Structure formats: C-alpha cells, structure tokens
C-alpha cells in the first residue's frame, strides 16, 4: 500500500494514520473540523493536502450514524479503489449504504477492537492496535482486491484480523464492549452524590470498574444509538440476574437460618459464575489467561521511582507481565503491583530486597 485517505481524525482515525505514515504510506487527512486535521498532521499522521486522482484505500473513521453517508460520498467522488469504515457497529451502516445506492463490492465494514477513554487526535498512538483483534465483515459481494487491501492495512497496524458476519459482530460487541460501558457509567453514577467519607475510601476495585466511565458521553451515545437492540437484550438478561441477586441478599438478612443459607448459596453461585466467565477472557497476546504472582512494592510519589523499579526488575532478569498502581488516599505514596510468572517471583523478591525495596505480598 502506497496511498490512503483517512476521513475523521479522532482517536481511531489518527492512530490508523500514524501507523500507516510510520510505515511509509502517504496518508491524506480529512475532517469536518479543520483544527483536528491540523493537529493530526502536526503529529505526523499525514498531510492536509486534498487527494488528487485516487488513493488505494479510504478509511472512514466517523460516528456510526454518519458512516453510510461518508462511504457513499467517497464512492461518489471516486477518490479510492476501496473503502472501509472502522465504526463499532456493522449491520446498520451496511444496510444504510445499500439504501443510498452505494457499491457493496468496493466497501468492507471493519472494527478494530481497541480504544481509550480519551478521544481526539492528541490521544492517538501508532501502536494502538498492536496485537488487538480487528474485525472484518466481508460479504460474497466484496471484491478480492478490497479485502486484500484491508488485510494489508491490518498488518501495517500490527493487529490481528478476525472475520465475522456483521450482525453477529454487533451482538458480540453489545456483550463485551457496549454493555460494560453502560455498567461502568451506572456504577460511577452512584458516586456522584455519595458521602465524601465514602468516596475517600475508594480503592483499586472501584477504579477498575469505573475507568471507562470517563469516556466521552456523546461518542457513546452515537455508538449505543446504532446498536440499541442487542445492548438492551444483554441488559435485560443482566437485570434478571440483578433481581435474583437482590432477593438472595435480602434472604441473607433474614432471621430464618434456612433462608439465609439459601441466599448465601445463590450468591456463591453468582461469584463462581463470574470466576468462570472471567477465565474465558483472553490474556496476553490473545492466549488463555495466565495465573501470575503479584509482588507488591510500596513507592513514594517521586520522579523516577517507577523507572527504577522496572530497571531493577530487568536487572534481575524478570519480565513484568502486567502492572497496577494503587494510590494511597491523601498521601504522596502508593503500591505498585508487579504481575510476574510464579516461577520468577522468588528471584524478583530477593533482587528487589537487595536493592532496598520493601516488599508486600
């Protein structure tokens, strides 16, 4: 691939443009907001110059409600050999494009399964998609040349192609992406008017659950408006589970020993179902989730502390598989949790202690 056009210079569009530009592709940038185009271009994502002639592939990175019209416009202008979108909903835009008289052979709906709670070009990175699934939804009408261009794009972004049917994709993301966003927002909303004394007790658990609640509301309203049915189906099933859980907890308040035991048994079932579901979430590089040993290291909030921990771990010859930081409320201190292979944990602990670190296990 030598040339591309990216329409929409938000987080996803700019990240794609950065990845392509870094690998020698000439990328043209378009956006209805000229400031965003200038920002993306200044970051090295591509050029503001309009397309002259045709590019090989156009990437439409706009909200779901505008995908079909944007793809139809690309095809009408004949500025690209093929066109894709990277929206988080696939079935609706395809049907809308057909209603607009678009060419299904020159279009392929895709969805890179990666993002951040921050939006806009300044949040973009060239490695955003590295190792992440990138869903492709080709149909029998899709031209082979277009599919090949898209596979090359995915490879240039170092993502992993996954082929799915469009409506199956929409049901899947309702479960693994769209519903979690709403649940995170609902839990975070409980904090809005909570007592300050309660909020100050917040630990890593509430931070984990509410992290994505910081996402832009308008962006998620656009996404949910394009996939309301499948999301409502998942929430309806979840509501049933919640109602049963509430009844079980009420039973545990009862003075009747048998009712308390029954309620506790049902809560245990919910927790075990959660364990089983969590075990199915892919781990590092898409593999089955591994079980890591956690080594806790208290640190102060001083420049260079994290870098020193990682350097000392590297000197011990131990690979850090994952890391979490738990901040101490009201103090300039925190706890760094280093996740490592269980076989490597004793070596890491001994090495860090030799270098003066306190260890909390």
Automatic annotation (TrEMBL):
EC number of this enzyme: 1.3.1.12
Catalysed reactions, as listed in the record: prephenate + NAD(+) = 3-(4-hydroxyphenyl)pyruvate + CO2 + NADH
Record keyword Oxidoreductase present: yes
MF terms (GO), sorted A to Z: NAD+ binding; prephenate dehydrogenase (NAD+) activity; prephenate dehydrogenase (NADP+) activity
Protein biosynthesis recorded as keyword: no
Family: Belongs to the prephenate/arogenate dehydrogenase family.
Protein name: Prephenate dehydrogenase
Native source organism of the sequence: Streptomyces xiamenensis
């Amino acid at each position: 691939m030598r040339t591309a056009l990216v329409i929409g210079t938000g987080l996803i569009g700019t990240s794609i443009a950065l990845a392509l530009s870094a690998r020698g592709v000439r990328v043209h940038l378009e956006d209805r907001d000229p400031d965003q185009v200038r920002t993306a271009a200044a970051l090295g994502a591509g050029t503001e110059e309009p397309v002259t002639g045709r590019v090989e592939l156009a990437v439409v990175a706009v909200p779901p409600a505008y995908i079909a019209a944007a793809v139809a416009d690309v095809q009408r202008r004949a500025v690209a050999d093929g066109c894709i979108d990277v929206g988080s909903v696939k079935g609706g835009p395809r049907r809308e494009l057909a209603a607009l008289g678009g060419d299904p052979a020159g279009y392929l709906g895709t969805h890179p399964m990666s993002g951040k709670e921050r939006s806009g070009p300044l949040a973009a990175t060239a490695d955003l998609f590295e190792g992440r699934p990138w869903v492709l939804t080709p149909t029998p009408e899709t031209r082979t040349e277009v599919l090949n261009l898209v596979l090359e794009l995915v490879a240039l972004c170092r993502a992993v192609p996954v082929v799915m049917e469009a409506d199956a994709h929409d049901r899947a993301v309702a479960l693994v992406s769209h519903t979690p966003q709403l649940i995170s927002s609902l839990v975070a909303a409980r904090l809005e008017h909570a007592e300050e004394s309660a909020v100050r007790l917040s630990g890593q658990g509430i931070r984990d659950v509410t992290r994505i609640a910081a996402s832009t509301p308008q962006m998620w309203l656009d996404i949910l408006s394009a996939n309301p049915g499948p999301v409502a189906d998942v929430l309806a099933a979840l509501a049933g589970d919640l109602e049963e859980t509430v009844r079980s907890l009420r039973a545990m308040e009862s003075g009747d020993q048998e009712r308390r035991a029954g309620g506790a048994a049902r809560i245990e079932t919910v927790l075990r179902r959660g364990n089983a579901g969590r075990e199915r979430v892919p781990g590092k590089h898409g593999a089955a989730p591994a079980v890591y040993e956690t080594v806790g290291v208290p640190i102060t909030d001083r420049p260079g502390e994290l870098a020193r921990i990682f350097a000392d771990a590297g000197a011990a010859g131990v690979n850090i598989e994952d890391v979490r930081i738990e901040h101490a409320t009201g103090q300039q201190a925190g706890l760094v949790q280093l996740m490592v292979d269980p076989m490597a944990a004793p070596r890491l602990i001994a090495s860090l202690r030799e270098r003066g670190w306190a260890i909390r296990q």
